[in-house]
Amino acid sequence: MDKNRIKTFADQVIGDMGSAMGAGLAYVGTKVGLFRSMAGAGPINADDLAKKTGLQSRYVTEWLKGMTCARYLDYDPENETYELPDEHAYLLASEGSDHYVGGLFYSVPMMLGMAPRVANAFVHGGGVPFSDYGSEGVLAVDLMNRGLYEKRFANYWLTTCPTTHERLTTGGNVLDFGCGSGRVSIALAKAFPKSSFTGIDTDSASIKVAKDSVLQENLTEQVRFECGTTDQLPDNERYHLITICDCIHDLNDPLGTLENLRTLLFDDGILFVIEPKAADHLEDNIHPVGAMYYGMSVFHCMTQSLASGGPGLGTCMGPASMEALTRQAGFSRFETLEIKSQTNIFYAVGL
User: Fold this and answer.
1) Which of 126, 190, 260, 316 has most Cβ atoms within 10 angstroms of its Cβ?
2) Are 19 and 69 in contact (CB under 8 A)?
3) In terms of DSSP bridges, do strands 239-245 and 265-276 run parallel, antiparallel, or are they unpaired?
4) What are the pLDDT digits (tens) for 81-117?
5) Is 266 helix (H, G, I), strand (E, B) or coil?
6) What letter would DSSP give residue 290?
7) Which has more confidence, 234 or 196?
8) Measured in whole angstroms, how far is the alpha carbon of residue 281 from the centre of its chain?
9) Where are the alpha helices (DSSP H) in the chain?
């Protein structure tokens, strides 16, 4: 055996374990507001940060040291102070923006907390349904996507489909399938006040969040949410736009769902699909984003599909698999949209 390769891999294992612990510490910092409290505050010592946040000093001290070793914070050994660089705060303390990463950290305990059950599914089959991830699961997904939907969906992503964008401007009918916490419908309703929006999802906890949010936004005349399947929709209702965001790969019947959604589109309507950005071939996914997505697939996406007897398509479908699936469902138009994103890929699918 190559001893140098052994050493290199041992270093990688330790590095991966350090990254895992760093992500866990970042979750705590996000959840209890430490990053937010440090943003723009300049150098600060542990005791002062504990007083400022009202948190336990011993925990704060150890957290600061851990985040320093993970290179999230800068440390001044002479004065024993810690600082969150503005460039890091831009990502860590910017909730509601389109560059906030806190939702990723929320997903860590939510997903890895299910690791024993997923390991059991490796042996016995089945999986973990979405509802079992609880309120933390709903919140993690919401935080990962909220800022993107609010800042980019109407003003950037949909502009790549100009006919649909114009239709919504003058007044159209929109369905968000797998709406989760309802952020897509709410964001688009604000941008297109002449259009009507319906969100539907089988997860009752997500729909409750969506309904509460639409009340807070005073959009109940324009947006409605339903818990269940498309069977709950009014007969003969058709849509100019159907959005299906980051969930086709999660479904227990993706083909049947797409076939059903095809019947709900107007002839000139489109299905706007957002999926995790992955290449068609494994060798092209060997990078940190690919590793992240395959982990998310095992611990969240694939397992929830398998839990309900689905095919478990997995997070990293790739454009070729997505096109084949939509064409099998009866769609004749498939276009990969030219939208810049490190993590998402976008498709316009039509009749």
Assistant:
1) 316
2) no
3) parallel
4) 999 999 999 999 999 999 999 999 999 999 999 999 9
5) strand
6) H
7) 196
8) 23
9) 3-31, 34-38, 46-53, 57-69, 86-92, 102-112, 115-124, 134-148, 162-170, 183-191, 204-216, 254-263, 288-296, 302-307, 319-328
The torsion angles phi and psi of 242, rounded to 5 degrees, stand at: -120, 120
Structural domains in the chain, CATH included, are 3-93 (1.10.10.10), 110-350 (3.40.50.150)
Closest CA to 108 of 292, 346, 304, 326: 292
Global pTM?
0.95
Strand partners, 245: 274
Closest CA to 246 of 99, 153, 345, 109: 345
Closest CA to 147 of 207, 99, 179: 99
Q: Is the dihedral of CA 95, 99, 102, 106 positive or negative?
A: positive
For the stretch 126-158, pLDDT in tens is: 999 999 999 999 999 999 999 999 999 999 999
Q: Is the distance from CB of 114 to CB of 79 less than 8 angstroms?
A: no
151, two tokens? 């800042």
